[in-house]
Every structure is written in C-alpha cells, then in structure tokens.
UniProtKB/TrEMBL annotation:
It comes from Amedibacillus dolichus. It comes from the Bacteria. Residues 1-77 form the Core-binding (CB) domain. It holds the Pfam family Phage_integrase. InterPro entries: CB (IPR044068), DNA_brk_join_enz (IPR011010), Integrase-like_cat_sf (IPR013762), Integrase_catalytic (IPR002104), Integrase_recombinase_N (IPR010998), Integrase_SAM-like_N (IPR004107), Tyrosine_recombinase_XerCD (IPR050090). This is Tyrosine-type recombinase/integrase. Residues 95-269 form the Tyr recombinase domain. Signal peptide: none annotated.
Amino acid sequence: MGYALEAFMDHLMQEEYTENTLSKYRRDLSRFLEYQGDQPMTKELVIRYKKSLLLHYRAASVNSMLAAVNHYLEYAGYSACKVHTVRIQKKIYTEDDRILTRKEYARLLQSCSDPRTQLIMETLCSTGIRVSELHYITVENYRKKMIKVYNKGKERVVFLPDRLIAHLRRYIKKRKITSGEIFISRTGKRLDRTAIWRMMKRLCAKAGVDQKKVFPHNLRHLFATTYYRMKKDISKLADLLGHSSIETTRIYILESSRSHYQDLENMHLVI
C-alpha cells in the first residue's frame, strides 16, 4: 500500500495540486491506510472507517478526509468502495468565538511593535489574499496597484489599496529591500504559514483578543465580510477571493450567532 500511496501522490503532483493540498492528502490517506492494515479493500471497510471518524471529528472534517479517501479509491481502481460524505445542514451563522471583529483586528495592529508583522496583517486583511500568496508581493510589482496571483490552477488579479502601497514603500525603504519578495525572514528566506501564525499569536495577550480568533486565514475572512457588507455582491467577492464556487464564498460571509439573534429580535414577531 505504501507504493500505491506514493504513486497516487506522484499523480497529484502531476495534476499540479498545491503543496498544502498534497500534505493534507498524504496525512488523510496515511490515516486511512493505517486503519486498513492487512484487511482487504471493501465497501464495508470504508464504511466502518467513516463511522470511526465520526466518533472523533466534526462532520465537516470527516467529509474533508473522506474526499481524499474517495479520490484515492477512484485512482486505485476501487470506485465501488467509495462512500457518501456526511450530509450537513447549511449553517446560517458561525460561532462567535471564531470570528475576528474589526475592532479586535484594530487592537491587534495597535498592540504590534514589529513593523513586519503589522504590515503582513494589513496586507492580508486589505487584499483578501491567502497567506500562501504573500510571496507575490514583491518590490518589482507592488507599485503597479495590482498584482497577478496564480493559485489552485487559476490566475486572478489582486488590487492593492493606495494606503497599503504607501506603507509598503516606507517598509522596503527602511529595510533596504531592493528586489524580490518583501516579506522575508531575517535570513532572507520566505516566511511560512507557521511563522506568521506565531507572530500573530504573540499579540493576543497584549491586545486582549482570544487566541482562537487569531490566525492568518481569519484576516481573509474579515476582508470577505467587510466587502460583502459594503457591496452585497457575492459573485464579485468570489472572484476577488479566487473561489471556483460561490458556495465556498458563502462560508466566508457567515454572520455571528449574535448578529443572527439580533436579526430575530428586530423582526418583532412576538406581540
């Protein structure tokens, strides 16, 4: 099975899957193959595996893991063993303790004494780019007010606000960065997702913001919700975020349960 897994991973690389997706597929499939052990590949086996996942993970996480398993089964010639994902009722709101508010974002920036961390956060939040796309912000292209980003097999244009451009200009001048990527480590290497996550986490106590809300992807969510409240155009927002499906974009603009509760109160249907 180890050989089959490696052959499948090579196949995904040829299909130009991103590094993050490859890493996730390898992790999910290794878990499944470890569960299988010496047992023959059968539909009953995969169903039992699905049930075992549901004992420990949320339905959405189980579906994500099953997507990798089903893809592998189809590739390996076991299409008859594929299983259905778990049906989940669409959520109309998300948990309050997972939403980073605009005020909390402002407090994080105000509490930040490191110009690099602050500018990374401002760049992610004001453009909506993924943290993995930060390397497209270079000395050569930031002045153009727009950059071309290639990710998940698609190319899209990302616009940079004038105020962000001014901040980037001051930063590279002070740091004497003359070419290439703007956001780099002190040794000149590209900053990875984990390093940026740690930089942000260090601000939480001083800013008085729950750590569960503070991670790079939540800045992309804040961009999405802010834009949608202003324009109410989910199709354009999907294009700005680089989503292939509007259903993905809907997840980004879920209101908090507190906002949903207030909407119910404002209906005044209890006389």
